[in-house]
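Translate sequence into structure tokens.
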Amino acid sequence: MKKILISVILLSSVLFTQDFLLHQNTYTANHEASWHGDFSFNFRNDGGYAIVGGSQLFFIDYDGEFISDHYWGGNLWSINKTSDNSYIVGQESAGRQNQLIHMNSQGSDIDWSINVSSMGLVYNVIELSNGNYIMAGGAQPGCCGGTWDAQTTSLNSSGGHLWDSVFCVECGSGNNGGDEMMFAAIDTGDGVIVVGYEGNSDVDGTIVKYSYSGELVWSQIHADPSDNTSYFDIEETGDGNYVITGRHEQNSTNIAVVKVDPSGNIIWEEIFDYGQFEYPGSIIVNPDNEYIVFGVVGESLNLGDQIIALKLNSDGDLISEQYIDLEESVSMGMESALISDEGKISIIYASNNQFYISEFLQSGVPGCTDQFACNFDSFATENDNSCDYSCNENGDYVLDFDGHYDGVMIGDHPEYDALT
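Result follows.
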């Protein structure tokens, strides 16, 4: 295992540049009093987004226009799309009542809503490959003012309760001597891995695997007495392992990136220190098995006036880094970055009663970059010589400028000579 503290000077890089910025949209949300600043979002089928934050749920189309805006009250922490293109939402309502809400594919109606547990928080909801659902969060057995136990709950496709599992290090009827919480879950194909933290004054990253039926397969606590670590997000890598991002605290708050094997053993760990407060958001894995981490950098905890993006290779080496300067301080949640099948990267972040979505293209995305070709790829940044013009009549490639023709002819077509 290697553990490296990296102090980085912020410089532009080839991760993505403003040349690859597709859109940067600003949205205003009402009900500022119920704002918690952490947003979760997912792609819609039309290329738009389904978004939750504070007490509201938003649907935005491909062009960045609002489709609908729902105010539900409480706190909405997580939204994910299901295999039938519906949506599941995790809600914490009054009295810390956890709800799992299932919406139709248009996002216009609630199919069902289940009260899952009391005195708890739900930070992440996902659908498993077997059609069941997982909710990751915590429960507070000692009631108000008591410490938290990490809790993972499974429900069937209709919201019926299957199992709960509580993970705590020093469990007791009241205060257990420390807090535990789960922030993210991932389907492994034979079970589910959840990540979070345990501890109070000495906080350690926690990673736990359960079978689909709820049996504990293994648990790992990544402890170091000299620092505090919390795990926020996890993704599967292209080599069959898992990469995690989280918060590392020693003299200040830094971004941690950890790669683990299928048993939760650390392969490598990197800590990124910019000399300020660095707070992580999400991590994504691109088709080249590179890991891209987003976070905020600033002078106060959880808020920053810069967004930082780090790209690492599978060995944990820093390939590139990029920052985006902002006019005001923003926060990023634990489900704040997406990557589409075409390679588009989207991030969401918030300030006061506004939230922002920025979309980027990675450099080095191959495809046909000629917009007049039949197979033009709007997400490609490098032409791979795959352009196909066969959909044009007779294979012609003709441009029309102000009523006359000019262009490149594919093949011998002297009938166009008089027009050029």
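Note: The longest strand covers residues 318-330.
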